[in-house]
Amino acid sequence: MTILNLWRNHRIVPLLLILAGIGDLAAAEKPNVIVIFCDDLGYGDLSCYGHPTIKTPNLDRLAAEGQKWTNFYAAASVCTPSRAGLMTGRLPIRSGMCSSKRRVLFPDSAGGLPANEITMARALKTAGYTTACVGKWHLGHLEPFLPTNRGFDSYFGIPYSNDMDRLQSAPKGRSAFLEPRKEYWNVPLMRNREVIERPAMQESITKRYAEEAVSFIKGNKAGPFFLYLAHSMPHVPLFRSKEFEGVSTAGLYGDVIEEIDWSVGQIVSTLRSEGIAEKTLVVFTSDNGPWLVFDTHGGSAGHLRGGKGSTWEGGMREPAIFWWPGKIEPGIVHGLGSTLDLFPTACSLAGAKLPDDRTYDGVDLSAALLKGTKSPRDEMFYYWGSELWAVRKGDYKLHYVTKTEYVRQQPVRHDPPLLFHLGHDPSEKFDVAKKEPDVLNALKKLAVSHTASFPPPPSVLETRIKN
Description:
- By secondary structure, this protein is an alpha/beta fold.
- The chain has helices at residues 3-28, 57-65, 79-88, 92-95, 120-125, 175-178, 205-219, 251-273, 313-316, 342-350, 366-371, 437-452, and strands at 32-38, 67-73, 130-135, 154-157, 189-191, 194-197, 225-230, 280-286, 317-323, 331-338, 379-384, 387-393, 396-402, 412-421.
- The strands form 2 sheets. The protein has a 10-stranded mixed β-sheet. It has a 4-stranded antiparallel β-sheet with strand order 11-12-13-14, with helices on one face.
């Protein structure tokens, strides 16, 4: 063998080893992704977002060590369309997962998230992720629409809201919600595609979700994995474990939030003890604002106006905390973000390519998270069912129609539209439409351009099971 061949051979072996190492490193750098999604949590319900009596030390620590976003939006103001937006990165109007007649899916609904919609779980599986859904699904309870048919390897939770399947023997009106008992509802608890408990024992459900999440993390710590933990609470009826009865000065609602905070602590401590905290992105947010009609059982939007079911800020602006030790640039972020952005952000971090055969409404927030750059989102569209009611660009927000409560109120149409500067006036009290005609016209053009850009498909939510 010549000296040249020796040199070449000795160079080739290390080079192959280096290239193999790069491949291993690329796989190792794919972060685990955990999305913790509450139900009906208000913007002002955490102590790190200003609540004076609810204690959330675990979430406060996450916010201090990671990023707390102050202008982060759910995709819709009620459960089903909001979850469709999070799972697909697309406004629910694009998939037919919204309706102005039936706002969410019910136990008699025949439909669910269409099979041609690509979920975050399905996309991450193409990048080698193990996926699990724990908690409330609400994107179709019939077998073809369950999480295990939408990209998740496993499922443990309830298929729709915990106030559905209300029994005839339960008290009428609001009393069943304000003084809840587990025997008033017949909601099923499922594992994968089988019902394993009915009615679901809701007093321990937050605790059991946490246990399921911890078990999944420990069993898949080699990664990469995607865990979607969608809490049933604090949607009414409110339930908490024995250990959390009366622990909060904020009453039953406070007990519920403080148990959710405890569950976050369990997950984070598991990540630390298993040595994978630095490999894991944790996101905490909610599907929509507080259900205000239930008084102290309905939470608070804090400084914001309105709540669940409305397109006022309190209906769709949510707490949002991003945590990834050693990776996330800590701080408070005032730029815009949305649950729509979680899909493209997770795919970007995982190296999963977004399909190019459809329009995505989400944007990639990874640079804002990792480098502290400005969020690329500058617009937000606020739908009520299948109708666009409001639009935001920069600091300004235009309202065509407003409605403060989910029920018990008729919508009010505005001509000319209302206009608010959300930087100066986050409570949306002072209409500046007359002072800012150019801004008003620009937002009206944006709204017209958006609604004219695509024909919405028929609503999935309006089909019912035939008897």
